[in-house]
């Protein structure tokens, strides 16, 4: 987007990274942050200074073309730095599942290192980054990690109990894996079924697998003390953060700029492509992939009307509505990304003892981007690569001190046991975190919309309406499983 690089000064010395350091230290930089905070720009700045190559971890930017919808850096903005997994899959393809991303990213990371260069991972899609960083996440989230020859449907065909009532499944689970049976709420069919699937799919108890993962992790940490060494190597993490009001304003302006730059043309391309596939009689799962990208969904009514010959003020009105909806969805997405950091990433980092490697850089004011983001990011990276002591993350800025403390506190609070029931979904949640995850899930939102349509509930009775967020880059299934897994 280049919004940030315009401010980039040429910082003096650029110590380049030696092959020996790469071999010995296996360094890796990971950049988290919501949309519009300048992640891609920081990545390029670091790569030019420290001999880096960039790996994209944004599910939408993995799609070919559509530079405006997906906010890709232009070739010029990439400044000759190799960008991997950027624009690499076709429009019709499904977004990668986390295992696929993990495998490819790991392969690319070792390739980059074999060239004596520094891998820099740039987020967007937090569950890709988390999946890569935190071992065990994938096993936690998906059934049948090893004996995984059978998929969900095949398992269900072979073990009909998997399609029975929650009570029946729980009874079976109590028989084969009582530890897991005790963990789940009796109504939570999905988790009960997942535990059973793991048992049937691998021939092992899920509780044993988790216990083994925990003890592996613990022994790893016991033997490596505080080196911050990690399966991936020596990790330095950045979290680009902007205060909400400032970010919202920036995001609104970005949508206006996207409109000027041809957003409508791109959405029309996607729309035509969709119509072609539908006309060819294909079934298109519109709940994921490019069909869920912000900008496309919101302009669909406009595009459909335009195709049907609607014109004049009526069409203008639809375009206006599309613009507003795109702005709203973008803001909600940014909020959702921060929530993910709070609800998921922080606690995983805590568990991996990597929290003191998470540096929040304050991207609130674009005019201070140089001093707050660029210079601090460059200096921290320099120290990291030189193996010099790094400052405590709270000392990087006032914002870092305040926001990190607040976020860590909220992250810890989410484990607080509670018992809240969602009257709309008839679901009981056992921790604050799970409750928050539930009321922001698509399932819940859908139920709320349904109930509203049937006029069963007045708008003000919906639990924490303001927390409801869209999750455009996330396969629907992952929203519920990823957020409330064990
Ligand atoms: Zn609900």
From TrEMBL:
* Record field: catalytic activity: adenosine(37) in tRNA + dimethylallyl diphosphate = N(6)-dimethylallyladenosine(37) in tRNA + diphosphate
**Residues spanning the membrane:** none
Q: Which UniProt keywords apply?
A: ATP-binding, Cytoplasm, Nucleotide-binding, Transferase, tRNA processing
Task: Provide the C2H2-type domain boundaries.
Answer: 421-444
Q: Per its UniProt entry, what is the enzyme's top EC class, as one word?
A: transferase
**InterPro entries, alphabetically?**
Dimethylallyltransferase, IPP_transferase_euk, IPT, P-loop_NTPase, Znf_C2H2_sf, Znf_C2H2_type
Which is a Gene Ontology cellular component entry for this protein?
Answer: mitochondrion
EC number(s) per entry: 2.5.1.75
Matches recorded under SUPFAM superfamilies: beta-beta-alpha zinc fingers, P-loop containing nucleoside triphosphate hydrolases
* A Pfam family per the record: zf-met
- What's a Gene Ontology MF term here? tRNA dimethylallyltransferase activity
Superkingdom of source = Eukaryota
Q: Name one GO biological process term.
A: tRNA modification
Q: Which family does this protein fall into? A: Belongs to the IPP transferase family.
Task of the protein: Catalyzes the transfer of a dimethylallyl group onto the adenine at position 37.
HAMAP family found in the cross-reference section: IPP_trans
PANTHER family assigned to the protein according to its UniProt record, in alphabetical order: TRNA DIMETHYLALLYLTRANSFERASE (PTHR11088:SF89)
Name used for this protein in its record:
tRNA dimethylallyltransferase
